[in-house]
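User: Structure please.
Assistant: Input sequence and predicted structure:
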Amino acid sequence: MSQHNQRVMYMDAARAIAVFLVVLEHMVENSRRYGLISFDGNYQDVFIIYLLKYFHIPIFMAISGILVGTGRQVGGDIRQYWRFERRKFFRLMAPYFSISIVQLLIKAFTPGRDLAEVPAALVGTLVAPHAGGMPHGWFLVSLMTIFLVWPLMKPLLDGRACVPLLCGLIILAISPIPWPTYQGRWPYFELDRTVWYLPIFLVGYLYGHRGFSNRRPGILMVLLGAMIFLVAFSAHRFISWTGTFAGPILSSGVQWTGYLAAGFCVLWFCDYLFRNPGRVQVYIARIGRFSYDIYLLHVIVGHVLMLAVTMLHPEGPLIYILPGVIAMLALFIAMGIGQVIRRASWLAFIMLGEPRQKKYNTLHKI
């Protein structure tokens, strides 16, 4: 196996891990929503949810930045900028709007749902994904926002302004900013999350653009990333529990450092693990190739599975492993549905943002 294919496979493997963690988080949330399991206190403070958030989206953001850094870059020409933005828009926003409509229809015809909620959800789809038809589509909106400003930031990153720009954006990310909100709850266009994850995307870009992604990380790099993550995770957890003297900027800075370390630790671990890939690694990488399909479709599949499980009225201690089992089923079913959708190019374009004139590439850029 060539070194290039191994490099592609390690990123696919990292995406497979990330998308499974996303599906698992959403299935845990659905288990609470459908009454299968219950949590005391704030849902966001549940340990498993708190932990998962450190890994999945940071992995995706870091890989997106690396792929931009190692791929063909948009230049300063306005036509190149337009082609770049148009390609990203159809890749990200076409599935966002189409799946939002599908999920809104499902919600509208679900027993017990109030149809009066649909108009507000339609508006939310346009201005605040968490209040719309596809709440997990916030990642697509945030990534599209990053791509909109990316051509303007690239010359600064490639020049002497790189360090000041990156440091300034990190400070902005961890600062408590009163973003304007929709319905008094959700920031418009996911600006808070976009600003939070933008520096991770840029670190990924620099990591790929400056050739670090072509170097083999040793086990010491993996251990270093794991150590930084554990220290940051423990420190932020301690601050959250005890309400110590640490201010909001210091607390957010510790948490953001943990996000960055967790994302790159998984990347380095996959790169280290895939030096001599076996059958298991190859199959994991195959799942990662279709992580975008899984991300888009797993919520619909998960709702159907949850409805089926609740009809069985499960009880006992085994109920706490149900989210993991359902997450695995949702992952593979969503991947299979994605393969069926790809058989029709027009449907793949609408539902998956797949360009009609191109065949699927092993290196799945999102």
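The first helix runs from residue 3 to 33.
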